[in-house]
User: Which sequence fits this backbone?
């Protein structure tokens, strides 16, 4: 028993410490990718689309779980993170929105929310129906859907139909080389929480410097994703709980912390567009690319447990509530945020006490 307890404590510590490495690697990768892209002439709005709302840390956890033959852990993380982004992050954003100002969601926010609802409506029945032939077809289709979404969104942003996922009316790019880091950091400043500090740094590093950090960040999130998945597997095996339960609750909560932080900060600064696009972009990434990779790699072979019927409607209903709030519920946003947060707590409690309770 003592040995088992030591193993559990060790893996819990490994899980928590690796989580910090994962978040640091994601922040480093995103920030320096933005700088490198701007240096080589890629549009800042495309950089914003590529970096904001893209769940790179979630993708590495998914790939790490798949590499260790735990597809149930990977899929549970996708579904749990998608639920957490809406009921957890978006709800906090609504609650912490700047006092005294009425929330107003613009056209871009409404389009992003509607795209997410359409994708979720199409994906939800496929997630639950894990027949090999269904997933064999759906997996590549979802990956292709992500590519199409990226291309259409990029074109719409460049033509002014949409705003970039983390852009606002007061932030723009600068053509002066000494300000490149500041412009790129404003693309990802909410992620790091250091936008104001970064604006005071007026020096410029070489392209080689930023490329090296980009590669370092990519290596860090790749390694951390694999280790985090391994630690999660060891914890699940040691305490004998469901892969889906652990990933839907614990891994999802841990890996969506940046989204919750961005939601609170953007809302407090009175930027509802960032709040919506962060949530919608993250979930589109999860339900298209990440989910498509899981389906393609497994073809429905989830030997450690399927997604439960309870979790599928929660995902769709929460997304529908998100879309309705953006389109029609701005006046009642804080009340809706409170209801969503309570619903998320209730969801977690029911996961333990009812859905995955062992007889």
Assistant:
């Amino acid at each position: 028993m003592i040995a088992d307890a030591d193993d559990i404590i060790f893996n819990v510590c490994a899980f928590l410490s690796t989580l910090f490495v994962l978040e640091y690697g994601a922040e480093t990768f995103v920030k320096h990718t933005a700088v490198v892209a701007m240096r080589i002439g890629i549009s800042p709005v495309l950089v914003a689309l590529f970096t904001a709302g893209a769940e790179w840390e979630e993708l590495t956890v998914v790939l790490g779980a798949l590499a260790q033959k735990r597809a149930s852990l990977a899929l549970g993380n996708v579904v749990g993170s998608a639920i957490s982004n809406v009921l957890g992050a978006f709800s906090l954003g609504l609650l912490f929105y700047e006092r005294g100002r009425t929330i107003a969601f613009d056209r871009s926010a409404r389009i992003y929310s509607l795209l997410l609802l359409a994708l979720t409506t199409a994906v939800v029945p496929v997630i639950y129906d894990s027949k090999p032939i269904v997933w064999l077809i759906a997996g590549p289709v979802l990956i292709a859907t992500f590519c199409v979404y990226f291309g259409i969104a990029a074109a719409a942003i460049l033509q002014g139909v949409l705003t970039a996922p983390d852009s606002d009316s007061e932030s723009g790019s600068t053509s002066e080389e000494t300000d490149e880091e500041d412009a790129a950091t404003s693309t990802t400043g909410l992620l790091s929480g250091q936008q104001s500090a970064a604006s005071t740094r007026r020096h410029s590093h070489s392209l080689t410097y930023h490329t090296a950090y980009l590669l370092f960040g990519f290596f860090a999130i790749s390694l951390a994703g694999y280790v985090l998945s391994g630690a999660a597997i060891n914890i699940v095996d040691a305490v004998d709980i469901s892969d889906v339960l652990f990933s839907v609750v614990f891994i999802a909560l841990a890996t969506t912390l940046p989204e919750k932080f961005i939601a609170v900060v953007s809302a407090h600064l009175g930027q509802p567009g960032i709040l919506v696009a962060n949530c919608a972009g993250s979930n589109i990434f999860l339900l298209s690319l990440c989910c498509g990779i899981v389906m393609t790699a497994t073809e429905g072979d989830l030997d450690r447990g399927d997604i439960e019927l309870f979790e599928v409607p929660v995902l769709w209903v929460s997304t529908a509530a998100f879309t309705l709030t953006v389109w029609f519920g701005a006046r009642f946003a804080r009340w809706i945020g409170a209801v969503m947060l309570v619903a998320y707590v209730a969801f977690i409690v029911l996961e333990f006490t009812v859905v995955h309770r062992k007889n």
User: Anything to note?
Assistant: The mean pLDDT is 80. DSSP finds 14 helices and no strands in the chain. Residues 5-162+206-355 form a domain with the A middle domain of Talin 1 fold (CATH 1.20.1420.30).
